[in-house]
């Protein structure tokens, strides 16, 4: 985060996005690279970087459908291929460029947050948070 070391910097606009949706970094794909089961820690690879740049449709489809269901109804589960447990999309652990949530903030034209700002912001929200960086 900019601070007194850059007196010319003024905060840019902050967009508050309310509603269940998935969120990606600035130039992120619309799919997660992988999802980790919170129960058994098995990782489902969706985009097999660096060999592939497109999602494995077979792997991604159950997640995409569960996310769409969750957006509509507030509930959506994907069964883990390893342990078989049906896990809510909000509990899968995604790669760092992908997140699902009901609240997001876009800080336009802001420099990277300081660790202290991010920690305070997360604590105030009281929820699991993910920070995405993006440049256009
Ligand atoms: Zn599992």
From TrEMBL:
This is Terminase. It comes from Streptomyces cavernicola. The lineage of its organism: Bacteria, Bacillati, Actinomycetota, Actinomycetes, Kitasatosporales.
């Amino acid at each position: 985060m900019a601070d007194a070391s850059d007196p010319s910097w003024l905060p840019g606009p902050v967009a508050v996005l309310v509603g269940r949706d998935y969120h990606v970094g600035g130039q992120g794909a619309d799919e997660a690279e992988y999802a980790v089961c919170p129960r058994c820690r098995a990782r489902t690879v969706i985009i097999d970087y660096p060999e592939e740049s497109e999602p494995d449709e077979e792997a991604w489809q159950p997640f995409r459908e569960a996310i769409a269901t969750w957006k509509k109804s507030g509930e959506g589960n994907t069964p883990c291929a390893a342990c078989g447990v049906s896990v809510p999309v909000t509990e899968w652990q995604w790669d760092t460029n992908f997140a699902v949530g009901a609240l997001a903030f876009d800080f336009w034209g802001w420099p990277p947050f300081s660790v202290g700002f991010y920690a305070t912001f997360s604590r105030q929200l009281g929820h699991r948070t993910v920070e995405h960086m993006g440049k256009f």
